[in-house]
Write a structure and sequence with these properties.
Layout (H helix, E strand, L loop, with lengths): L1 H22 L5 H5 L19 E4 L3 H16 L4 E5 L2 H11 L4 E4 L5 H11 L3 E5 L5 H9 L3 E7 L3 H9 L1 H8 L2 E6 L2 H10 L6 E3 L24 E7 L3 H15 L4 E6 L5 H10 L4 E3 L14 E3 L6 H6 L3 E4 L12 H5 L3 E4 L7 H9 L3 E3 L3 H11 L6 H15 L2 H9 L11
Parallel strand pairs: 1-2, 1-4, 2-3, 4-5, 5-6, 6-7, 8-9, 8-12, 9-11, 10-11, 12-13, 13-14
Helix pairs in contact: 3-4, 5-6, 6-8, 7-8, 10-15
């Protein structure tokens, strides 16, 4: 089965490179300069030094999730390599770590690219965030005695069925996995059904609840004159629905304010045109308390990466995108940690545990349409609003999950060697 996979990946590698190069056209010069590392070739002016651990996170969301764990490794004196697949993920890693880690793209999962890549970087341990199972990479890690650890490990129903269907192929990959730090007992069960032992797959909790924002308090949020809500990580079609819902909200609460954040900045121009067509007064969002300007701004648009947490800090309510369209949802703990009442759509298979926990404590509302979103916002802006109770309940859920970082580090740390004495 592995040889079939190798043949297919070799055939489709040029197409994959073409798509990735198109995504990288709007990336930073640094991200573009590192494109050769996808094929295991060194980036310009880069010289590999011995590293203690390689962290891999697919894109922006996974970079944010795994950042506290990387910080733990750096604080312990370990030398880290961080990789991602997407240009936006690369730029996010640059912003997070500057020159404290080595940065590269992960290799394409072809035999030649992976072999060349491992020869160049020679990582002793690979720590992978969430769902990534790459047959070629994991197979070669196993042959080279490179331990693979899965952290914040989860499997959507779709991924689980795929891995079961092609079990002969993924059996090779799982041989490399020495530990899987799972988000929940339900996720642990899935990994053991795929072939990991109960000793290998352990429950550590969800790292998405371990961000720096988890230390903020509910009272840290300012309270503008009217209801302030943020719509974060929005995907196409959700832009229109959110803008439509905000228009309906303004009919009942004229002083309401929306902070709108697309998942990908390439959609900013499209959103600007939609806002103009809707006749809404909008400005570019900047971090800090929302200013009291005239005429009143109805929508603040995020046009820069890394400002979503700042948006949630200014909001009473947060709608988390990728959930009214079949994407799977995005981080629900983030706005909950900041005291927001959380709203999400029905497509949340990637956030199942977080959604279940928040919903059980009354911290989350699920909606299925633009009209339902508007209805929820109008209710939350009313005199009998449960805003404060929802915010406090959400923070309580995040506090319960916040020990996930220490539990995950306890799984990873014993596999790391070579750290100098703390200074």
């Amino acid at each position: 089965m592995l040889w079939i996979y190798r043949t297919l990946t070799a055939l489709f590698a040029p197409l994959a490179l073409w798509r990735l190069s198109r995504l990288g056209q709007s990336a930073s010069p640094s991200a573009q300069a590192h494109a050769p590392t996808r094929l295991g070739r060194p980036a310009p002016h880069s010289t590999p030094s011995p590293i203690d651990v390689w962290f891999h996170a697919a894109s922006v969301g996974e970079i944010n999730t795994i950042t506290p764990l990387i910080e733990k490794a750096l604080d312990s004196g370990h030398r880290a390599l961080v990789t991602t697949f997407t240009p936006t993920g690369f730029d996010q890693a640059c912003a997070r770590f500057t020159d404290r880690v080595w940065l590269a793209y992960a290799p394409l999962d072809t035999k030649r690219a992976v072999s060349r890549w491992l020869d160049y970087f020679q990582p002793p341990v690979l720590v992978v965030a969430e769902t990534e199972l790459w047959p070629e990479l994991f197979h070669q890690c196993h042959r080279r005695h490179i331990d693979v650890v899965l952290v914040n490990a989860r499997l959507s129903d779709q991924h689980f069925k795929r891995y079961q269907r092609f079990s002969k192929l993924y059996r090779h990959a799982l041989k490399a996995v020495v530990r899987a730090a799972c988000q929940s007992a339900a996720q642990q069960k899935k990994w053991t059904q795929l072939g990991l032992s109960a000793e290998q797959a352990v429950v550590t909790g969800n790292l998405k609840a371990a961000g720096d924002w988890a230390s903020l308090t509910f009272e840290d949020r300012p309270h503008p004159r009217g209801l302030a809500w943020a719509a974060g990580s929005l995907h196409p079609k959700e832009f229109e629905w959110v803008i439509e819902a905000h228009g309906q909200l303004l009919e009942h609460h004229p002083q309401a304010t929306l902070i709108l954040a697309p998942r990908h900045l390439r959609h900013v121009g499209e959103i600007q045109r939609l806002l103009d067509s809707a006749g809404l007064v909008w400005q570019r969002f900047v971090p800090g308390p929302l200013p009291d300007v005239h005429p009143p701004v109805q929508v603040w648009l995020i046009e820069t990466m890394g400002l979503l947490v700042d948006a949630y800090r200014q909001a009473d309510v947060a709608f988390v995108g990728g959930s009214l369209v079949p994407v799977g949802g995005h981080n629900l703990y983030e706005p909950a940690a900041l005291g927001c009442a959380v709203i999400t759509g029905p497509h949340t298979d990637q956030q199942h545990e977080a959604k279940t926990q928040l919903q059980a404590q009354g911290a989350l509302i699920e909606v299925t349409s633009s009209a339902a979103l508007a209805e929820a916002l109008i209710m939350l802006g009313g005199e009998q609003s449960p805003l404060e109770q929802m915010g406090q309940a959400g923070r309580g859920v995040v506090r319960q999950q916040s020990k996930s970082l220490d539990r995950t580090w306890a799984v990873v740390e014993p596999l790391l060697v070579g750290a100098p004495e703390p200074r």
